[in-house]
Amino acid sequence: MDVNENENSNLQTKWTRIQSRLRAELGEDVFTSWFGRVELEAYNEGHALLSVPTRFLKNWLESHYAEKVAESCRREFESVKSIDFKVRQPRGYAEKAAVAARAEQGNSKSAVGYGDRMVPVSGRSGRGQVRTEYEGFEGSPLDPRFTFDSYVVGSPNRLSHAAAWQIAESVSESPLRYNPLFVHSNVGLGKTHLLHAIAWEVRQRNSLTRVLYLTAERFMYSFVEALRARDALAFKDKLRGIDILLIDDMEFLQGRTIQQEFGHTLNSLIDSGKQVVVASDRAPTMLESLDARMRSRLAGGLVTEIGTLDYDLRLKILRKRAAEKAANDADFIVNDSVLEFLAARLTESGRELEGAITRIYAAYQLTAEPITVETAEHIVRDLMRGKEPKRIKIDDILRIVSKHYGISRGDILSQRRNRSIVWPRQIGMYLAKNMTSRSLPEIGRRFGGRDHTTVLHAIRKIDGQMKENPGLQEEIEILKRLLKD
Question: pTM, whole model, 2 decimals?
């Protein structure tokens, strides 16, 4: 390894540690939203250069997190004088253009059409990701693995799957049946898979259909950039010209102006007979950050929930993923006893199940040893939950606290400062910190958009009161038991 390679490796090691520190201090949600795509380009004589993919992200980080990043960098580098952000150029653009040109010359099976362009895809089962695109408006990445063929159906997701399939089957030919379609569930249960599957199926059936898949984060970035470029009108017109809009992670849509514009776009598309599909981690009526009018419009179509995966569906998923590995390696065999063991012990999400099969397959490739129940347990032991307690959600806390103190959920989330409301609100924040893994900023957002310092003050106040008041301790314990039941 030469000197430059050694320096780059050392630099990236330090940046990895800085990222870990930021994740721990800011919480997983904040880190993923704002720092997941930040890269350390260079560090020279006290000057750190970070790159980001969009101007909006650059401006946001400079305005809100520059000092926090500098503070974390100072723990790894001896002297940090300045932190600078730049917008990096898209990577591999020339290579992608060349591949696209080759695809247009005759390999029609290796590409999917978007508007007037052919976006290269490494086969429906390939690992490469592509983006939906319409008149220069670039959507979020689509994963070629997430098709209807690879989606495993069972009782918890049967309704959502059926609705998604009917939309994909008829969106460009028949009158709309469900508009909008709103799919919600906890993380890792297949919402994103369904949205990607709709996009792939629609494009396969009719390449002229104008499809756009966006995460809420991507929508926010694009809209703010359009405002900065004074191109908001063109942005609106492009969105309203598509045939089917798929929006993922709706719970992350923030900002009054952005929400208003999305609401106008939603109304315009639906009123024009265009299909809208939305996915979120909770039902539209539970999206407190959205105004009542938008929640009502989202709830006005078909709302489906993907429930917790039952044993039968978990086993079907494991069999499907194992068969996919075996299709590429005939010597890879996993007995039903192993799959049944995994289905009984891994109960959290489909991602967890896929991760287990991926680990087991990797272990088999490295050791060539047969997969038994004992070896499988050893390989995925950190995923085993056993009889873990019920996972508490902030929605559960809001429900129990409002009922216990005889106030409404809206009162807790409001800006009212009456003691009869502030006290339950502070207790709710205390419970959220002690019974969930949410960060202080996330708790503040879920409790009416409050600052993390307000949450910290509430936690400290309840902590102090509990030390002086045994009755309050007993009251908190009662609420905890109600939440665990």
Answer: 0.56
